[in-house]
Design a protein that fits this description.
Order of helices and strands: HEEHHEHHHEEH
CATH topology of one domain: T-fold
CATH architecture of one domain: Orthogonal Bundle
CATH superfamily of one domain: ApbE-like superfamily
Structural class: alpha+beta
Number of strands: 5
Largest sheet: 3 strands, antiparallel
Radius of gyration: 30 Å
Shape: globular
Helix content: 40-55%
Number of helices: 7
């Protein structure tokens, strides 16, 4: 008969072995499920493509999507991005450059509801960033050579930069009311929505894919 000192330890030993067996079985089940899940995902088709837009390469990866469906979606996205790129191009002939010219000359122009919403959002973002982002920095961006396919021989002078910044319309001088945009600064204006426009089209692409059943 075991001594009283060893009895609790001997009694706990079978219980511990029982719990170890239960834990081992649970771990084995989890390992099996993990392997099965990985195996299942490896058999699902993955569509990949690259789209050239906004001067950069957009990587498109669609999981659980066949090549046929992927090509169709990719073509629609490419056309959507091209239309957006042409509409909001900051220095080539586009509705945006025409708007900048009109506002520089007459100070006012009527725009459609979609353009009014996007420009309003860019102004709100500029206000939230305290001017760190400004949708009308096109002239300064051009002075640095970013509106050309050829690199400039030298950066703009400090005087050029200051002259541009001193004539830059303030946020309260650019207003939109009932789809009519006004430039009350009396100065030339040059819109360049830059990365903000890229973010907008990416959001619209995600929305389009979700409507198409791609999550």
């Amino acid at each position: 008969m075991p001594s009283n000192a060893n009895w609790p330890r001997q009694r706990r030993l079978p219980e511990l072995k029982h719990y170890v067996r239960i834990i081992s079985v649970c771990l084995a089940i989890l390992l099996y499920l993990s392997i099965a899940a990985c195996s299942d995902s490896n058999h699902k088709p993955v569509y990949r493509n690259q789209i050239l837009a906004f001067g950069t390469i957009v990587e498109l990866t669609l999981f659980d999507t066949s090549d046929t469906d992927g090509e169709k979606l990719s073509n629609e996205i490419r056309l959507m991005m091209e239309d957006f790129h042409e509409h909001w191009h900051a220095w080539q002939n586009s509705p945006l450059t025409l708007l900048s010219q009109t506002l520089s000359q007459s100070g006012q122009s009527e725009i459609n509801a979609d353009d009014a919403e996007l420009i309003s959002k860019s102004l709100a973002l500029s206000n939230a960033s305290k001017g760190l982002f400004h949708p009308a920095l096109g002239e300064l961006i051009s002075a640095w050579g970013f509106h050309s396919d050829e690199l400039p021989l030298s950066p703009p002078s400090e005087q050029t930069i200051n002259d541009i910044l001193n004539t830059l319309p303030t946020l309260d001088q650019i207003t939109i009311t009932n789809n009519v945009i006004s430039n009350d600064s009396g100065q030339a204006i040059h819109f360049d929505l830059g990365g903000f426009a890229k973010g907008v089209i990416i959001d619209r692409t995600i929305e389009y894919l979700r409507k198409a059943g791609i999550n």
